[in-house]
TrEMBL record:
The keyword Membrane applies. Keywords: Membrane, Transmembrane, Transmembrane helix. This is SNARE associated Golgi protein. The chain crosses the membrane at residues 17-43, 55-77, 107-129, 138-160.
Length: 185
């Protein structure tokens, strides 16, 4: 109940023009924290629902924030070596998405970067294998930007029209119910 009430209050705050930018920055920071996925779904959906006409702006702001986080990660990998990602984020190395991303990158090369980026998964494996295969930073970050704009656009439309489908983005039933309540208000 508290989550639903908090989300309704958040919706009013989320109507500010800068709120999607803040959520984007937090999405970029989440590349290093790895613990904010569920709260970010709530914040992102709040931004979309607070002003449905700006759903594309919200998607782009979130994608740009994510790409900025990816850029910082790429710079750190270039300074500290490619194994920096394995050493700093060992849990990502053991995730099922690590081997899946590796297989996609081996099979399809740089072309796989956009669809992988559009998936509701962590980006660390993609960045690791892109750097390992010597993909240029520009191509990698552009692919991530395109893929994440697609991902967040789909997410925005789900929040607006079919919140129950947010489960595919890791949203719990409680979060989905809160989004539905916010949408109704």
């Amino acid at each position: 109940m508290a989550l639903k009430d908090g989300l309704v209050k958040l919706k009013a705050f989320a109507a500010a023009w800068w709120f999607p930018v803040l959520v984007g920055i937090l999405s970029g920071a989440n590349l290093f924290l790895l613990v904010m996925s569920a709260p970010l779904v709530i914040l992102y959906c709040s931004a979309v629902l607070a002003n449905p006409k700006r759903w594309l702006y919200t998607a782009i702001a979130n994608a740009v924030g994510t790409v900025l986080g990816c850029l910082i990660l790429v710079i750190l990998m270039e300074e500290r070596g490619i194994d920096f990602i394995k050493e700093s984020f060992p849990s990502t190395f053991t995730s099922k998405w690590w081997s899946w991303s590796e297989g996609m990158m081996q099979a399809y090369g740089p072309v796989a970067a956009i669809p992988i980026s559009a998936m509701p998964i962590i980006l660390h494996p993609l960045i690791f294998f892109a750097k390992l295969s010597k993909m240029s930073d520009f191509v990698l970050l552009t692919a991530i930007l395109i893929g994440r704009i697609v991902k967040y656009s789909i997410m925005a439309q789900m929040a607006l029209t079919a919140p129950h489908l947010l489960k595919f983005f890791g949203a719990s039933q409680e979060v989905i119910q809160a989004v539905k309540k916010t949408k109704a208000n």
